[in-house]
# Entry
Amino acid sequence: MFLMGVPLALSAQNPVIRNQFSADPTARVFNNKVYLYPSHDIKPPVGQRQDWFCMEDYHVFSSENLTDWTDHGMIVTQNKVPWVRENSYSMWAPDCVYRNGKYYFYFPSSPKAGGGFAVGVAIADSPEGPFIPEAESIKGINGIDPCVLLASDGNAYIFWGNGRCAKLKDNMKELADDNPKSTVKFGNREMEMVGVNCLEGLPNRQAEGPFAFEYNGNYYLTYPYVKEKTEVLGYAMSKNPMGPYEYKGLIMAEHPNGCWTNHHSIINYKGQWYLFYHRNDFSPSDDKRRSVCIEKLFFNADGTIQEVKETLRGVGVNKATEKIEIDRYSEASSDVTTQLIDTVNTFRSYQATLPKKGSWLRYNDIDFDCINNDAYMIISVKAAGNTSFAIREKSATGKVLAKISLDNIVPPETTNAPAGGGMGGGMMGRFRRDLRNQWLTQTATLDYIPKGVTDLVITNEGDAEIAVDYVLFKNRPKYFTPATAAPIAPDAEGFIHRWMLLEPINKPNSGNTVFTDSYLREHFNRQYFKDQQTILPKDGQKVQAVFKQEQAPAGFGRGMGQQAQPAQPEVKTVKQTLTWHALDSENMNVKLFRFAEKWGEQVYGVLFWAVTIIDCPEEIKDVRLAVGSNSASMWWLNGEETLLLSGDRRMVKDDAMSSRVTLKKGRNVLRGAIINGPGMSDFCVRFLDEKGNPVTNYSIINNK
Amino acid sequence: MKILRNILAASTLLVAATASAQSGQPFIHDPSTLAECDGKWYTFGTGGGGIITEDGWNWHSGAERPGGGAAPDMIKIGDRYLCIYGATGGGLGGGHAGRILTMWNKTLDPQSPDFKWSEGVEVCYSDGMEDQDAIDPGALLDPTTGRLWVSYGTYFGTIRLIELDPATGFRKSGNKEKDIAIDCEASDLIYRDGWYYLLGTHGTCCDGVNSTYNIVVGRSKSPEGPYIDNVGRDMYHGGGKMVIAAGDRKTGAGHFGRTIIDEGVEVMSFHWEADFDMGGRSTLAVRPLLWKNGWPIGGDQLKEGTYEIESERRGYALELAVDFVRMNVARAGGFGGFGGGQQTNAAPPQPVAEQKLEDVISTWPSGNIPARIGDYMFRPHQKWTLTAVPEAGGYLSNPYFKITIAGTDRALAATEDVEVTTVPAYTGAPEQLWRIEQLTDGTFRIMPKQIPGKEGINTKYVLYSAGDSTPTLAEYDFNSDNSKWNFRQH
# Structure
């Protein structure tokens, strides 16, 4: 069997497993990783008792940071274990330990013979399996919830049921022969039980799920039992693995939400103690379907354990670039509540509602070291009306990372169709929707970027209720780097990455369909700035552009509606001071849209000038200039018009080719003008030889 | 004179309109892949709602889809329908922050008591800052693996691929988006014969009669690409081979969907930005989808007209079983044509008139005349006129046709004993109506709407070459040339 790990897009927030139920978590540290062996609640199939526990198999999960969990898939399933009764759906709380080079996975189930519960073992060479189950269950154990303690006395002890403990043989598959035995009465029946009941005389009402461990010379026997109404986690301590144990108190109180069971394990990972436990977050109306949660756990100096409070937040540091379920907050104003996003598909998780101005929630431990200065934030939010909210650092009055206004939530009473009507008007009208209580993915640039690990706070700053689901931060891709002084070669495919780009000239166009050949010739041949066709610009060089600008001609532009031809186009004189930038494009296509976004006044309705200097070691004859551009463009090689791409165009590799040209020995100047209305703008340029192969034997100079 | 010509043009135009476009009210933009539910076909468009056809040809409004937004796709998985839609407008509503959602329904029939859409679940989004615009999803349930893939995006950046869980319609756990193309919108994925195909719409959208919208394709051995076109260019660099563009008085083909009707019978659904015969409105198109050398090609709408009906089996022509009437034309120039050269004093060759209907019709019996298949000699008993009968309804891609001997009312008809004959006059009876579909290899299958004595609409029996010379009706078999015919004008 080939077991493949499936990384879950899951995080540290409670519950930690978010695509299936998981209960009775036994966590173990193997090979510096945390392995989680929970039982696997499922919704009972037809024919099974619908209001009872139902478990048919086990999965194992692992994590190196308690935030990213990998599901290694199913390891043991009920109908492939020889001693387990078919379709018993009773694969309850397991454990797994490593000894003598093997991994021993202990699990209870309903046996084919004898009724009640038995415990079996499956053995593997790796913590992820494959696990081979033994044919028979372990003789002498009648009960559930095995836990194996590898004690410093060199022995392995197995605990089960209501706190019974017996020594294991070295083979880990049988109880030792020298275990004490006692006769226990069950009603009229008498049974011989192996081992000792370590919880006899201690608070032990309905005790189950024992988890024993050793720390600082003490043995701890921790266990769920019913103190008042539902299970709590209690513990007892001893100097010997098999007791006697002394009761010490609670590790965790009753679940506030009423989930009847709890079941747990305790590990130390990288110097911190953690409590793994469960509650029914993804099945609030049925507490037989549970999910694993984690909290930090602390000891007192005398070896006693501090009581652990359940949180939504759980443990672990989130990278700011992860999808962070911010509704699983660390702390919040008293009016904040959480709700399942979808009461049917509960794995869609929760939302947190901040009902009014001043409501806040705080989420701790987000690491911003992965965030650069170009980063932005994404938040999933819904609002009951037009409002605003802020994301702050550390507290409700902390520094503002971003403030987001939601002022288009409520649709305007009347829809004013744009002048000219037509399809554009109709389409626009149809997209003006009522966004009240709709999930929206809001994006915001950051006014402030925190450093290191910090807490984020969301504050409701407006007049309507908001709900939040998740937040994450993204670094923008790199589109350009400053051109270096040294010449560069075209890439392996011949594309020219190095260009001097002039900040865009404002050239209003309602759409790209106006870019006819004659329009382009007229508009590209106008002078916008001095020496337009001869300049060999340097990085940072400024030009004064002075030109006559007409009102946008008629044409259809996406999102702009069909516009009527203005009877008397308005003409004004525009002056712009524009800077040349010497840049190397990260991509084969030079993303002018992103260039304009960073350095331009506007991104749409623009005209770009681009210049590159090609240095040839020798003359290269009969090559063609190959261009793709969005939208139209015109190209001049050594001052001669070489290629025109007209119309509403996308950037297609090798869209248009020049006739055969010669690249002369020494410097050649390639100049382009690219014009765009709405939409993205970019271009790609290379030279191809007679056979269509890229020309690469030249260098591209930075005109420093 | 000028007025008369205008009237003539107008009437021609009407005929063309009934025969060359979906009938009724096929008004839609960005139609989802056709989905069948309880014998009806549905397609859903941008903005909400959709259109329905009972017979495959006549469309009317009435399909319901909440959520608005742009360009949905619809796919049947098990016994449920999964609707995948962009909840936003691809820049139309403002920026390029987009969300794609899925929702289920047990039925597409709004009248059904089971009709209830589940709440939309977001499966991906574009954040408004990236080179991406999350609208226009297209879905593929991979027939080889059962995995559910979705491509989406517009010209604003890339076309992306994601994987959904076909059991839930949710995003597959751990799945990361992959960029597979640029310069497209309204993309779709299909699978055929070991290849995955990415179809994208290129050109100018939403500009009516001036829209240059067209559908291009690239293919890959993996659903995750790279999708390469016919000249080896990656669609991620703008590559794409044309599938269909403007023609037949219609411009702006966009938003591809593929529907497999039968083995070797496929259609593609898409919209025209402007149908010149429908006032320039945006309409649904359903055209034959042909395959040539592993590439999809948009077939033409079958036109009314007079044709040879050629058997794919032998290449003979469907004809009336009547006497072959010899033409008495002397062989000009003796045997000079056989290598002797033209006699120097011979007159230049004169055209020979073809045999006319009136030359032979009196030799034909007056009652039913059986059909036969024979050497094509472009004689009147071999010339068949296809005339659309839109009032009789249709099927995906065409209305029913009557098939008559050119210049007469004598009509091809199915018989009770599952044979084929001709009746002296077309009566409109269902056995005289023919469903004609172009197959993926470019040939056609021809099936009677009904066979006398058999219940219901016929979807099984086709015109069939029992022998080289003998037509019959038999069960359609794509793997046999006996099932296939060509309509030739020559």
Notes: Residues 1-18 of chain B have pLDDT under 50 and may be disordered. Helices of chain B lie at 2-20, 357-360.
